[in-house]
Amino acid sequence: METVGMETVAMDCIMVRLFDSIDEQNMAWIMAADQALRGAFGESLIDLVPSYTTLLIHYDCRQLNHTEARARILAALEHLTPADTQAGQLHEIPAWYDESVGPELSRVADRAGLTVQEVIRRHCAHDYCVFALGFAPGYSFMGLVEQALATPRLSTPRRKVSAGSVGIAERQTAIYPLPSPGGWNILGRTAVPLYDFARRGEPLLRLGDKVRFKSISRSEFEAQGGDTSPLEER
């Protein structure tokens, strides 16, 4: 790659910036860089965290000094070619969209000048790319939500968002894997588990995967073991 930005964020951590804007096409480069850097650092790599436009490299400074680490990064990325994004898995996630479990459906609809049913249809009409993992085990930041549905985060976050809640914030969408505080606009809920907390294994969704939401009825949601308890007020 011609332009690679590097920032030292700790004595053993370097942030590599490949892009300045979020774009699904950039993920092919992020995934390729992830593979190349893992190979370049080998056993000296402690952790590597890819995200929307960056990769954070945590290396063993007992094996590499800062200058050597930067040299490995530049060498690994010099002849980088984009990865095959088709390798990511497509997941169809059934979700029950209803204002009892998705209290911001009306807010999103009003801002967009659409009906609630049209908001649901549009949210289910796209395949969303997993751009980053974090916040909680199994939590995946996905996008891009179409511009018409883009809605700012809540000014006052909720103390508790139910597990399985499907939300949007600006042009991102996500599923809460466990009960937690949150300020996203909640549209519905899914019964699909995103992470096995008992086994602490791999999350269901991985970087570069695609997610397609499917609107289902309350009875279908209940048959899948879904919790129909209304979302708590803020």
From TrEMBL:
<dbReference type="InterPro" id="IPR003833">
    <property type="entry name" value="CT_C_D"/>
</dbReference>
<feature type="domain" description="Carboxyltransferase">
    <location>
        <begin position="4"/>
        <end position="207"/>
    </location>
</feature>
<dbReference type="Pfam" id="PF02682">
    <property type="entry name" value="CT_C_D"/>
</dbReference>
<dbReference type="GO" id="GO:0005524">
    <property type="term" value="F:ATP binding"/>
</dbReference>
<keyword id="KW-0378">Hydrolase</keyword>
<keyword id="KW-0547">Nucleotide-binding</keyword>
<dbReference type="GO" id="GO:0016787">
    <property type="term" value="F:hydrolase activity"/>
</dbReference>
<protein>
    <submittedName>
        <fullName>Allophanate hydrolase subunit 1</fullName>
    </submittedName>
</protein>
<dbReference type="InterPro" id="IPR029000">
    <property type="entry name" value="Cyclophilin-like_dom_sf"/>
</dbReference>
<keyword id="KW-0067">ATP-binding</keyword>
<dbReference type="InterPro" id="IPR010016">
    <property type="entry name" value="PxpB"/>
</dbReference>
